[in-house]
Design a protein that fits this description.
Four copies of one chain form a homotetramer.
Chain A (H helix, E strand, L loop, with lengths): L7 H23 L1 H5 L3 E6 L2 E7 L13 H16 L6 E10 L8 E12 L2 E9 L5 E11 L14
Antiparallel strand pairs in A: 1-2, 2-4, 3-6, 4-5, 5-6
C-alpha cells in the first residue's frame, strides 16, 4: 500500500509549521506575563499567529473601558509569537497602535498577526485586534529585530 | 503682617495643579488596571504626569525580560493622567513606542509624560521611560482625543 | 430589446466610483506639488487609489538614492486621493512609514492605498510602495481627519 | 604670549563639530533633492541639525496648503544631516509625523533635529517643524540605522 505522497514544498511547510509550534510551546512555558493576563495563543504558523484575551474587570481603566496598554499587550503578544516562529530569537524594536473602538468587560478580543516584511534582521508585522462581534478594536504595526544566531529551541540546524 | 502676595497667574496655576490632583484621585479610584499592575501615579500637573511600576515576575515574557506591552501600558498610563489633567475626558486615539533597552525583574521604571501639543480636541504627548539607574528604556508618543463637554470631576465650570 | 439590468447596489457603486473620479479631477487641477514631482494618479475609487512616480535625478539624496521624504510624499499623495474620494474634505493628521529597500534613479514607484478604517471623522489608510519589479520599497500608514460639511466638489447633496 | 588653553574635552567637541560640518558639506554636494526643494542646512553639530525651507507655489496640494509629504521631506532632511554628523553612513529605517497646523505659500519652515537615543547601530531622532512666527507645524520622530564601517568623509580614522 503506497504511502501518502508529500512533495518537497509541502514537507518544508510541514516542517516550518511544526517548528512554529515547538517555538510557541517553549516560549509559553516561560511567558509569565501572557499567563497572568489569560492570553491564549490560539494559532501559530510561519510568520503568523493569533492570540486571544477576555477583558477582565482588572483590565479596566478609570473610564471603565479596557486599558489601551493591555490591548497593545495582547497585540504585542501575537506579534512576538509570529516573529519568533522561524526559531531565531527576535525582539520588538518598536510598535504603533491606532485605537478604533473601546473594549468592555467580558469582550473576547482576538489579535491576528501577519508578517508584512522580513529583510536582513528586521521585520514588519501587522496585527488586527477584533472583538467577538468581528468589530475592529485596534490596528497595530510592530517592528522586529532578530538577534544573531540565537535559536529559541534546538532544531538540529546551525543558524546565521 | 502682610499676607503672601499671589498674582493672578500664580493663582491660576495653583488652581490648575489642584484640579489635576482631583482628576487623578477620581481616575485612580476606578482604575483597576493600574492597580493590578502596581502602577503608582507619583506626580501630576497640568499636561504632565509621572507613573512608576516595579517589574514583577508575572510581567516577564518568554525571554525573561519585561513584556514590551506592559512597558507600553506604564507609559500609556502616564499619558492618560497627563492628558486628562485639565478635567475633560480624553482618550488615546493612538500611540507609538520605540524600545531602547530591556527591563528586568525588580527594575523600577519611571514614565514621565509631557504635553507637546494641544489644538482643538487633539493632543500629542511624549513619555520617556527610564529605570532606577536613569537609563532610558523606551520612548513613547501618544495622540489624544478629547470628548466634547465631559468633565472628569465636577469643578463648577461649564465645558466646551 | 431590454436594457442592461443594474441593481441598486451596482448603481450606488457606480455613483461612488464616478464621484471619486470627479474629486480626483478637481484636486488634480489645483495640486501643484503632485504635478511638480511628476506624480500620476493612475487609479482611484471609494477609499482606494494608486499613485505613480518615476525617480528623477533631482529626487536623489546625498547617498544617490531616492530621498525618503519623497517616497513618503508619493505615499501621502495616494493617501490624500483615497481619503477624499467620498467627497468630504479630509486632511492628514499624521503618518508613519517603514522603509524596506532603497529606490534608485529611473525606478517607477507605485503607491497603492486602501482604507482600513473610517469611524466618525477619523480614518486609517495603508499604502504599499513597490517598484517596477514588484519589490516592496515602503509601508505607510496614514491617519485622516475629515473636516465637517465641506465637499470637495458640488454633488447636489448636503453633507454632515 | 600664551596660547588659548583648550582642554581635551573641548578639543574633542571642536573636532566633532568640525567633522559634522565636513559631513554636511560632502552630503550637500550630492544632495539633489534638497537643492531642488530649496532646503538650506542652516546649522549642524553632533547629533543635531536645523534645515529651512520656504513654501513655494509648487509645494501646494489640491487644498492650497503645503503638501504634508514635503513638510515630512524637510524634517527628514534635518534628520539625515543630524544622524550622519558623526561620519558613519546612516539611513532612515522609518519615521512618523504628526501634523499640528497647515503651512501656506511663503511660510518659512524651520526643522530642528535632536538625537534622542543612539545604541548600537540604531538611533531615534526628534524633529520639530515651526513656521516664521514660531508656531509648531509638525512633530517628527525618525529611526536611523547605521551601516557598518562606512564613513561619509575620510577622517583618517578606522570605523567600527
Amino acid at each position: 500500500m503506497p504511502e501518502p505522497q508529500v512533495n518537497a514544498a509541502e514537507a518544508a511547510d510541514l516542517s516550518a509549521q511544526q517548528l512554529a509550534e515547538r517555538v510557541r510551546d517553549r516560549m509559553l512555558a516561560h511567558d509569565h506575563a501572557t499567563g497572568a493576563l489569560g492570553i491564549a495563543i490560539v494559532g501559530v504558523g510561519p510568520g503568523t499567529s493569533r492570540a486571544r484575551m477576555t477583558v477582565r474587570s482588572d483590565m479596566l481603566n478609570g473610564f471603565a473601558i479596557c486599558h489601551g496598554g493591555l490591548i497593545t499587550t495582547l497585540a504585542d503578544t501575537a506579534f512576538a509569537y509570529a516573529c519568533n516562529a522561524c526559531n531565531e530569537v527576535t525582539v520588538a524594536s518598536g510598535l504603533s497602535v491606532d485605537f478604533l473602538a473601546p473594549a468592555h468587560e467580558g469582550d473576547v478580543l482576538d489579535a491576528e498577526c501577519h508578517e508584512q516584511s522580513a529583510r536582513g534582521r528586521t521585520g514588519i508585522y501587522d496585527v488586527t485586534v477584533s472583538n467577538q462581534r468581528g468589530e475592529r478594536i485596534a490596528l497595530f504595526r510592530g517592528r522586529s529585530y532578530r538577534l544573531r544566531g540565537k535559536p529559541v529551541v534546538d532544531d538540529g540546524h546551525t543558524h546565521r
